[in-house]
Amino acid sequence: MFAKQYSHRLPANYDMGLIRRRASELGPLWDDTQGLVFKAFIAEERGVFGAQANLYSSVYLWADPSAAAGFLMDERFQRVIDSFGRPDIEAWLPLDLQLGSAPQARALYRETLPFDAQADRVRLLAEEVERNQAIVRQDDTVAVFLALDTAAWQLIRITLSSSEPDRHRAGKAYEVLYLAQPGLEQ
């Protein structure tokens, strides 16, 4: 498995309706993508759900890393570059995936869990997998995964929720504009 996220900061006066239309038009093109567990088209809109700025982002969880690489090298990613420039991409190694009972996501939460070189990584992983298991038992959880960011030596938890974004919940909250989920539906 392979996970990644890239983001595009947008001007404060940017028409976020354009982003919503982009997600609704392009999202369905991902619904049958081979090797993809899910792609979340996410955003922060200034003044909505407590967001301070406008941002458009995509979070991917791939079952097949070669499919992820293929996307980055083909015309689909060229459309991203042509529209927004070439973004920095955060890449992570998934460690745990739990599927919940909620059918459709309205929010995505990203938690960053740094740890130092002396941390008991085996214990840390076991504790965070237990936390994933607790999160997935919540009625609003679509899915939750834990990944290792090897560049920063931190864990990343991504939770998809059927509830609207809540800025008081753990992690950074994003609104899900579209969720392509070919690997979650299998």
Radius of gyration: 16 Å
Looking at how many chains there are and whether they match, the oligomeric state comes to single chain
Q: For the terminal residues, how far apart are their CA atoms?
A: 16 Å
Q: Low-confidence spans: pLDDT under 50, at least 5 residues?
A: none
Report the top-level CATH class.
Alpha Beta
Pfam families: DUF4865 (PF16157)
Protein name: DUF4865 family protein
InterPro entries: DUF4865 (IPR032349)
Organism: Pseudomonas gingeri
How is this structure best described in words?
- By secondary structure, this protein is of the alpha+beta class.
- It has one domain: Alpha-Beta Plaits.
- The chain is built from four helices and eight strands.
- It has an eight-stranded antiparallel β-barrel with strand order 1-3-2-8-5-7-6-4.
- The longest helix has 16 residues, at 121-136.
- The radius of gyration is 16 Å and the shape is globular.
Summarize the entry for a quick read:
With 186 residues, this protein is α+β, with helices and mostly antiparallel strands. The protein contains four helices and eight strands; from the N terminus they run βαββααββαβββ.
Q: What key attributes describe this structure?
A:
single chain, alpha+beta, eight-stranded antiparallel β-barrel, 4 helices, 8 strands, 25% helix, globular, DUF4865 family protein, DUF4865
